[in-house]
Design a protein that fits this description.
single chain, Spore Coat Polysaccharide Biosynthesis Protein SpsA, Chain A, 2 domains
Length: 327
């Protein structure tokens, strides 16, 4: 059985499309279940989920505890040997379950990664959006990669470079989650957990099939540039970097991601706490002004190394620190 966990929070406009796409997936209640986790929605999302009208749907209503807690709730109630994740504002193709499961069984894989399309305002935003994301992270790390996306069995480093940190667009063997769960109370947790799942998997497979449709929404967590989001980005990047060092991967693999998340966090925060001190220590430890960092961050890093007080003054002048929001 496959357990598809759907994460819902105030998505009354988008959720009907998600549910409709899931209902179109062929299969019996013995073959698959759709676990809808309503994370304390204050709109009609909960009622929409309750009216899904399909014996394969199971709905759980919780208080609002965030992304990680909602996924963990779904995992706790999952009865399947395989887990898949869907954001409640996205939609899937009819082969969403069948094709990755077939690949997983054929290759005896613990994780199968597939491809997705990104949509913005009903228009295909970028057909190769996944590759653009990969190139973005490679640019942050100072690397370039002109190779085609690999298919078939891949190693862990390839999964890290090509597999994307999102929880969706993958199928996971259920037992991986017996020892790996999502941090609660923090956004941007996919970066930590997805790569830990890659590390725990004995075999990872990548297939070319486009089976997931990602909706680009300005109001989603991934596009909210609050101080909390920047803080969570930094902490997740730091945890991931620590993991890579422990796993004996080259530090430069994601070193620049930590550097950039640290400086962007420092640009927006007015806090003075342990997380801020960690970010400051990282900035102080960066050797010189690395060319792999974006130009704006290189400029701000130079200002930081010259005078941290001037750095904060410039950020306030630009409005970056106003109410913790990006100008």
């Amino acid at each position: 059985m496959i357990s598809v966990i759907v994460l819902i929070y105030n998505l009354e406009k988008e959720l009907p499309d998600t549910i409709r796409s899931l209902r179109q997936i062929p299969g019996t209640p013995e073959e698959m279940e759709f676990i809808l986790v309503d994370d304390g929605s204050t709109d009609s999302s909960g009622r929409i989920a309750d009216n899904a009208d399909d014996p394969r749907f199971r709905v759980f209503h919780t208080e609002n505890r965030g992304y990680g807690a909602a996924i963990n709730c779904g995992i706790d109630h999952a009865r399947g040997e395989w887990i898949m994740l869907v954001d409640g504002d996205d939609w899937v193709e009819p082969g969403f379950c069948e094709i990755p499961l077939k690949a997983a069984l054929e290759f005896n894989a613990d994780i199968v990664i597939f491809t997705f399309h990104a949509w913005k305002n009903g228009i295909l935003w970028e057909e190769l959006f996944s590759e653009k994301v990969n190139q973005f992270f490679l640019k942050l790390s100072g690397k370039t990669d002109t190779s085609v996306r690999p298919y078939g069995i891949i190693d862990e480093e390839t999964a890290i470079k090509k597999g994307r940190p999102s929880g969706w667009a993958k199928i996971y063997r259920r037992e991986l989650f017996d020892r790996i769960r999502y941090p609660e109370g923090r956004d941007f947790v996919d970066v930590i957990v997805t790569y830990r799942l890659f590390h725990a998997a004995k075999r990872i497979v990548m297939i070319p099939d486009v089976l997931y449709n990602y909706r680009v929404r300005s109001g989603s967590i991934a596009h909210t540039w609050s101080e909390k989001y920047k803080r969570d980005c930094f902490l997740s990047a730091l945890d991931h970097y620590i993991d890579l060092k422990e796993w004996k991967f080259p530090p430069e693999l994601h070193r620049a991601v930590v550097w950039n998340s640290a400086i962007t966090f420092m640009m927006i925060t007015e806090s003075d706490d342990e997380d801020v001190r960690k970010a400051a220590q990282i900035l102080d430890s960066i050797p010189g002004i690395p060319k792999e960092m974006p130009l704006k961050n290189r400029i701000m890093l130079r200002v930081w190394k010259t005078d941290p007080k001037l750095f904060h003054w410039i950020c306030r002048l630009r409005g970056l620190k106003r109410n913790g929001q990006k100008n």
